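I am writing to request your help with a piece of structural work I have in hand. Here, with my thanks, is the record as I have it:
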Amino acid sequence: MKRFLWTALSTGAISGAMLLAGCGSSGTDNSTTNSTTTTAQSSTTTTTSNGATDNASSSTNASTGAGAGGGKLRVEVIPKGLTHVYWQAVKKGAEDAGKQFGADIIWNGPSEEGNGVQQEIQIVEDAVTKKVDGIVVAPIDRTALVPVIDKAAAAKIPLVIFDSDAQTKNRISFVATNNYHGGELAGERMGQITGGKGNVGMVPVQANSQSTEDREKGFEDTVKKKFPNIHVIRSQYGQSDRTISMNVAQDMLTGHPDIVAIFGPNETSAVGALNAVRNRQLTGKVKIVGFDSAPTLTEGLTKGDIDSLVVQNPYKMGFEGVKAIVDNKGGKKVEPRIDTGVKLITKANMNDPDSKKLLQ
């Protein structure tokens, strides 16, 4: 989303393309929680490819997935939700890693990200009961998932956390964007496009979501430090839902009609902010800096309704998460922190090859 800044991506450039964005028109996940399994030979689900990947350099020496008794490893991948394009990009990366390393991928997540904490806990519990060979999970809540994550560790099931961390050390690796830095990029861009002054709105995503809270903190810290004449106004939480995010953004615009720009720290909040600005016929007057990618956001960037997007790489999260499990089971060293990268994309650089891969 924004100008041309890159975070140092972990080895290899940007893996696959990353679609980061929204589930249906409402932005909530409406699918069922039925899991799907993919194998090295075939896939029982269809996922749109996110583009070319750079995994060869990082995975050439990876182990192959041999589970108990010499069979294939069974790796359960548990996102925060099922239907956002972002999570589908994670799924594609996980499936491709399963194919490359000969592991069976079980894809299972809550039906609704905004209200799915208990459902996600139960899914992890079930994975432990099934004695899968590894778990890759994106915790909706950084504290609520800790007991069941610790239970997996007690059962000696290797577990990787991706996208959003939890308050436990019982994981073999954390695979994610440097979200605080992503927030810094958003804050820097906001200062540039507002001339460093004025009221700026922010639509926070969800309480206890570590990833988005880190982005929000990075944004606010940067604005406070570098642009003291900007005042950040927080709306109510958007609850990872496009419609709720739009409503709270509209309420914020009503209460503060002098707002000059809005930051949306994830796909649903950015889409909600965009729709609120369009509904109020404030396009061009209220600038938008978003986070993540989605067809609606890419269209907004193309038209100039959105100034910029901070974009991450969910495909790589899925791929590297599964690879970490396979390597661990094969006795290989796994890095405790794998940074999957982040980039600021604007209309000026959105057609660069790397940007196009991330926005697809």
